[in-house]
């Protein structure tokens, strides 16, 4: 399984919580050095807590399950 596929599997676990609040996350890519690029959409895209969701929710979960991940950034 590729790194990108592994990231997608973790995002599938995170999505229900985001979707329950009217948002979602879209994977834009994963770099060779472990940076995950995502876009928060729907209510999450304009939420004032989106940075908190990104860093303390999505990034933390990805790092826990995939040690190669160094950072998650949003576009």
TrEMBL record:
The segment(s) forming the NIF system FeS cluster assembly NifU C-terminal domain are: 7-73
Transmembrane segment boundaries: none
GO-annotated molecular function: iron ion binding; iron-sulfur cluster binding; structural molecule activity
Q: Which Pfam families match?
A: NifU
Q: Which GO terms describe its biological process?
A: iron-sulfur cluster assembly
InterPro entries tied to this protein: FSCA_dom_sf (IPR034904), NIF_FeS_clus_asmbl_NifU_C (IPR001075)
The text of the family note is:
Belongs to the NifU family.
Protein name in UniProt: NifU family protein
Source organism of the structure: Calditerrivibrio nitroreducens
What lineage is this protein's organism placed in? Answer: Bacteria, Pseudomonadati, Deferribacterota, Deferribacteres, Deferribacterales
